[in-house]
Specification:
The chain is an alpha+beta fold and 97 residues long. It has one domain: 2-Layer Sandwich (Translation Initiation Factor IF3). The protein contains three helices and four strands. The radius of gyration is 13 Å and the shape is globular. This is Ribosome assembly RNA-binding protein YhbY.
Length: 97
């Protein structure tokens, strides 16, 4: 679990990132979750945008993605979800304690 301080640190790091996934009409599927897990292994911190035609609520999408990819949900802001997962082999972000 992330502390408030760690979440603030990750939010500031994520600020300049662009969303690299979009969740649309089809909602969340296994293939998307797998791809997000792979990208998190490489990048550790990503943004996902929820399109307006998405059938699911953005909080539901955020919960499904973070559970499925075994990642931490940093924040949901507007239609953007920020996810973090510490990389096993490619660690780049050192979290404050």
């Amino acid at each position: 679990m992330l502390t408030g301080k760690q979440k603030r640190f990750l939010r500031s790091k994520a600020h300049h990132l662009n969303p690299i996934f979009q969740v649309g009409k089809g909602g969340v599927n296994d293939n998307m979750v797998r791809q997000i897990a792979d990208v998190l292994e490489a990048r550790e911190l990503i943004k996902v945008s929820v399109l307006q035609n998405c059938d699911e609520d953005k909080d539901t999408v955020a919960a499904k993605l973070s559970e499925g990819a075994n990642a931490e949900l940093v924040q949901v802001i507007g239609n953007t979800i920020v996810l973090y997962k510490e990389s096993a082999e490619n660690k780049q972000i050192n979290l404050p304690r």
